[in-house]
Structure formats: structure tokens, C-alpha cells
User: Which sequence fits this backbone?
């Protein structure tokens, strides 16, 4: 494939997207990279290039040293609070208004899709800007956290409880309602876009394959090859902002041409 065409969807797939009744988008950390939020696994800039995941993003790490984990997340929250959606996030908002139904399943915990204006978003791994009690799991308000004193905010619900980020850590199970919604979208979609994910973290990585098994067309948007690449109907190699913006332009032109009876 030549570079010039590396980011263009084939006509056959464009037609499938045009006619799709239900589109599923699966996004991963690469979707937020251009908003200035580091990915986990990219060798040069990824968060795990500087820290060991098992030291910071596990229930065991929190039990051993809640303060260290809380403050590490506080740094990440600062980054997320100052991040803004990019053209790729906005392109997905447009896509949602151009198809009958779109489910956006995200592994990201930064809320950028919702900030951009996407409506039907399922957060598989929680949201870093929310907190919950580490014992009961009940939600803790941002106001409670802001008013808290001490190294780590205490839980309002139980004496020995702390506040923890409302995210899914390594070794934890995904929220059931989110996983069910994601699987339903994968089984029911006729077009699936996997954007900015290494396709390594389960069960999210299986969703595009599930979509394929149920007859959907699957495209991948990622500058790098992933385990999904050999199975995808097409891989668009490039950054999510450019590729998704181009995709929307292509779909608009396709519809315009069809409207003119071309
Ligand atoms: P990952 O870090 O493992 O992989 C990132 C992927 O994005 C890589 O395949 C990389 O090639 C690709 N990528 C990098 N820049 C890109 C760009 N501009 N456009 C498109 N793709 C690009 O991320 P993952 O597969 O999502 O899995 C790691 C887990 O880490 C996720 O489940 C998520 O919960 C968590 N995480 C979330 C955030 C966030 O919320 N922004 C950030 C880091 C990690």
C-alpha cells in the first residue's frame, strides 16, 4: 500500500460504513495520545516506561501504600484535567450523528469522548476523575475529596476505608454492566472501528474479533501493527486525529456523490 492511500478507506468498506445500522468503536490509550495523555505501552513515552504497573495500579499496591498510589493518580488526574479532545474525538461525535446507532466502547479513563460530545459511551475501565470507597465500592463525591484533609481522603462510609480512583486495576474484573453493553455492541454491530489500542488487554481485545465472528467489517486505526491487524478488513496506519477526520470527510463525499446520482 502506498503512503498516499494508507489513510483512505477502500470503497467497499466505505459503502459498508455508509449502510451500517450499528457501528461500534473501540478506543484505547492511543486515542488520547494526541491530547497529551501518555499511553501505557509505547516504549518512549508510555507510563510503564517510567513506572512498574504492578507497583501502582493494583489493589495490592494500594493496600501496601495508599498514599503513593493516590498521589501518582493525582498527577495523572492533573494531566487529564488539562487535556482537551482532538480532531479524532470530534470526528467520532460527527460519526455518531451520521449513522443510525453508534456504541463507543472505551478503555480510556479520561472522559475525553464525553467532553467532545459523544453520547453513547461505555467506560470499560472506569474514570480517573471519579473516586470510590476502597472497601464498599460506593461512589465518593468530588466535593468530599476536595474537602478532605490528610494524605489520602478517607471514605465517608466506613471507618477504615479510603477513597480510591474509580478505575479498573490489574487483576480486577470489569464493571459487569459495561462489559455486557460492550459485548452486546460487538455482537450486534455491522461495522467496527478499533482505534488506538494495542489489542492486548483482555477482554477489550476480543471485542473486534467477536464483531468479526458475527459478520461485521472491522477496521483498525493505529500507526503500529497489533495482534488485531491480520484479522482486520483494513488497517489505516496513522494517528487517530488525522485518520478519523479523513474517514468522516470520505464518508461525507461518498454520500454527496451518491446524492448526486454519481
Ligand atoms: P496501550 O498504551 O497499551 O497502547 C496504545 C496504542 O495506541 C498502541 O498500539 C500505539 O501504537 C497506539 N497509538 C499511539 N499513538 C497513537 C495515535 N496518535 N493514534 C492512534 N493510535 C496510537 O493502550 P491500550 O491498548 O488502550 O491498553 C492499556 C490500558 O491502559 C487501557 O485499557 C486503559 O485503561 C489504560 N490507559 C488509559 C489512558 C487514558 O485514559 N487516556 C492512558 C493510558 C492507559
Assistant:
Amino acid at each position: 500500500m502506498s503512503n498516499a492511500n494508507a489513510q483512505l478507506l477502500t470503497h467497499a468498506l466505505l459503502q459498508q460504513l455508509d449502510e451500517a445500522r450499528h457501528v461500534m468503536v473501540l478506543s484505547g490509550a492511543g486515542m488520547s495520545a494526541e491530547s497529551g495523555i501518555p499511553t501505557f505501552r509505547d516504549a518512549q513515552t508510555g507510563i510503564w516506561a517510567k513506572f512498574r504497573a504492578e507497583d501502582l495500579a493494583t489493589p495490592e499496591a494500594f493496600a501496601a501504600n495508599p498514599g503513593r498510589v493516590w498521589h501518582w493518580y493525582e498527577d495523572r488526574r492533573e494531566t487529564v484535567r488539562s487535556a482537551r479532545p482532538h480532531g479524532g474525538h470530534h470526528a467520532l461525535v460527527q460519526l455518531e450523528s451520521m449513522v443510525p446507532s453508534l456504541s463507543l466502547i472505551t478503555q480510556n479513563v479520561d472522559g475525553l469522548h464525553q467532553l467532545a460530545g459523544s453520547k453513547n459511551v461505555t467506560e470499560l475501565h472506569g474514570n480517573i476523575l471519579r473516586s470510590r470507597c476502597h472497601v464498599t465500592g460506593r461512589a465518593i463525591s468530588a466535593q468530599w475529596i476536595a474537602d478532605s484533609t490528610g494524605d489520602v481522603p478517607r471514605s465517608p462510609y466506613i471507618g477504615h476505608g479510603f477513597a480510591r480512583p474509580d478505575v479498573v486495576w490489574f487483576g480486577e474484573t470489569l464493571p459487569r454492566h459495561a462489559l455486557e453493553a460492550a459485548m452486546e455492541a460487538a455482537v450486534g454491530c455491522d461495522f467496527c472501528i478499533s482505534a488506538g489500542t494495542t489489542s492486548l488487554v483482555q477482554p477489550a481485545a476480543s471485542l473486534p474479533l467477536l464483531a468479526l465472528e458475527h459478520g461485521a467489517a472491522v477496521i483498525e486505526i493505529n500507526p503500529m501493527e497489533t495482534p488485531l491487524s491480520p484479522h482486520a478488513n483494513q488497517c489505516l496506519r496513522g494517528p487517530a486525529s488525522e485518520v478519523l477526520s479523513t474517514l468522516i470527510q470520505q464518508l461525507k463525499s461518498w454520500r454527496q456523490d451518491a446524492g448526486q446520482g454519481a
Observations:
- Strands lie at 22-27, 101-106, 121-123, 126-133, 139-140, 163-167, 191-195, 217-221, 234-236.
- Residues 28-30, 32-34, 37, 39-42, 46-47, 107-110, 125, 196-198, 201, 221-224, 226, 239-240 surround nicotinamide-adenine-dinucleotide (CB under 6 Å).
